[in-house]
From TrEMBL:
This is Molybdopterin-binding protein. It comes from the Bacteria. Keywords: Membrane, Transmembrane, Transmembrane helix. Pfam families: Oxidored_molyb. One of its GO terms (biological process) is sulfur compound metabolic process. Residues 245-398 form the Oxidoreductase molybdopterin-binding domain.
Amino acid sequence: MSTLQDAPPEAPKRLSLPVSTLIGLLALAAALGVGHLVAGFVGYTASPFIAVANYVIDHSPTGIVKWAERTLGTWDKPVLKLGLAVVLVLFALVAGQLSRRTPRAGQVLVFLLGAAGVAAVFVRTDLGQVALLAPVAALVAGLVVFTFLHRIALPAEAVPGDQGFDRRKFLRAGVGVAAGSGVAAVVGQVAGTSANAEDSRAAVGPLVPARTAPPLPADADFAKLGSPAFITPNPDFYRIDTALVVPQIRAEDWRLKIHGMVDREVTFSYADIRTRPLVERRVTLTCVSNEVGGPLISNATFIGVDLVDLLDQAGVQAGAEQMFATSTDGWTCGTPANVALDPARGAMLAIGMNGEPLPVEHGFPARIVIPGLYGYVSATKWVESLEFTKWDARQAYWLSRGWAEQAPIKTESRIDTPKGFAGVTAGKVRLAGTAWAQHTGIAKVEVRLDKGEWREATLSAEVSKDTWRMWWIELDVPKGTHQAFVRATDHDGYTQTENRADPVPDGATGWHSVTLDAR
Ligand SMILES: Nc1nc2c(c(=O)[nH]1)N[C@H]1C(S)=C(S)[C@@H](COP(=O)(O)O)O[C@H]1N2
Ligand SMILES: [Mo]
């Protein structure tokens, strides 16, 4: 008689699909949770997930980044995070899949993923060596959890009498890992964001300018007729930056160093700046990636100090070509030194915006504002260093990605009302919008229906040559589909070209138009 009963119990040879999937996902959760926990103490942006996402932003082709800014606006970062999460989950699933017999392939994948996190932190110049602890801990946690769960689910040797896969034990371990990862992530999140800039900002108190901006005339805008409001409320102000996590700098920890080709290196604290006589200046900021008709332009009353006064204290040397600014998150910006130094330009180190301390996402504690230059060559937020140097000694963030060195804002105009493809009633139709030519000023805005005559629009009061100017006009629109065009002329006598140019490398050109469907 054959003795079937005498044969040793068969060890399970292969994990089921749900079990291998769960192992991959739990190892991922453990790695991210532990990484986030450690990052909470050694530097929030060292969290592997954030570090990898930042790396993706900094190393994506410039066309893609600028496309994302234009089409997704402020949603660009949530979309990126979601995309990265999807990739990670797929990775975890594959790791589980490939490990249904032995853990080897999954371990290799987990290791590679962990190594990517380590590399993403390693290349950051704004994080110290200890920051590496976060991705290293994540790597180790991922490997340990993967190996441990795999061993429970698929023991290497069957113990006589063992049933092989102990479902209870596996579930207990899995729940433990999931709960532990969640708690770790939450603790890391709280620790990492508790040194929040928001309470420091709330403690700043009122910023009282010694020199206030002249009061706004009643006709500074035609908001009632459909133009933008002259002053953009802070929550509506466009926001563009590469920071995945908004830098949290407390005013009391902030310093600005002016160095390089200067006679004396100088450093200012927040108290040094805010106790100087503050000036108030209305400036319209514009992003170079703004398409014709786009929304990346806003206007505020900034409060701060004259940048030239600080620069004079340092004594910028004659040969300096660029003011190379660095933000606390490592972003950099190059401004022509002669523009920064020109007293007539009115460059500011701003600490306030529309009567409040700078909002954190607009650069708290301090940023640069320079009328007439696109933001990427002038408007450094969370600024911590201004180095005077030659153009070829340092290359700023967007320059190395194909954007121009010199980028004065181009004269442009936009139709805000009616919106494109709006249905209107044939007859008299009112159009309203805005025009800008910062540091030169708008002299004239004209509107034309189809190929008709250009007609001059009514302009709002000129508040300053550094701010936008609103316009409105009434047109006779016959029944049918028509196109309305706008063009502006600045105080230098330059009239906007019809030629369409892309934002790359130094700003879009062309006439904005809307299609009107008159019934
Ligand atoms: N630190 C930092 N400052 C930055 C940027 C950035 O990515 N990082 N982007 C610049 C660009 S491209 C623009 S258009 C302006 C936008 O300023 P805002 O977000 O306050 O509107 O900030 C500039 N300052
Ligand atoms: Mo920009």
